[in-house]
Amino acid sequence: MRLEVHLESGAGELRSMQSWLRSDPDVRRTAVTDVRGNDPRPGAMGSALDVLQLVTGNGWSAASFVLALVAWRQTRPQRPRIEIHRGDTVIILTDCTADEIERATRALDSAAEEDRDT
């Protein structure tokens, strides 16, 4: 399954998140991460690193992934909004309440199940 994680706070924060995820044994064992840039906006020079891409494999745990994102977010002074994209599905973590974490985990588990069925 391919996922993209977007932050409003820029490339430095994405690199921090990538490092955090790579240090989590569950995520590191089952996902490959890469920070990528999109095409520059009109009038901008170069490309901005603005998306963390994940490719997950067998044994991937949505709960471990979401909890790793929440733990990373709690270490940030500004606690950015996190958007997780999978195709047309967008999952947003803002307050990281128990309900929000559960909804995100269910949505990612459902997406993983769809991938296994195809």
Describe the structure.
The protein has 118 residues and is of the alpha+beta class. The protein is built from four helices and five strands. The chain has helices at 11-23, 25-30, 62-74, 98-117; strands at residues 2-7, 31-38, 48-56, 82-86, 89-93. It starts with a strand and ends with a helix.
Lateral arrangement of strands in the main beta sheet: 2-3-1-4-5
Q: Tell me the β content.
A: 25-35%
Largest sheet descriptor: 5 strands, antiparallel
State the end-to-end distance. Answer: 11 Å
List the helices and strands and how they pair.
Elements: E1 2-7, H1 11-23, H2 25-30, E2 31-38, E3 48-56, H3 62-74, E4 82-86, E5 89-93, H4 98-117
Please supply descriptive tags for the structure shown above.
alpha+beta, 118 residues
Concise description?
The chain has 118 residues and is α+β, with helices and mostly antiparallel strands.
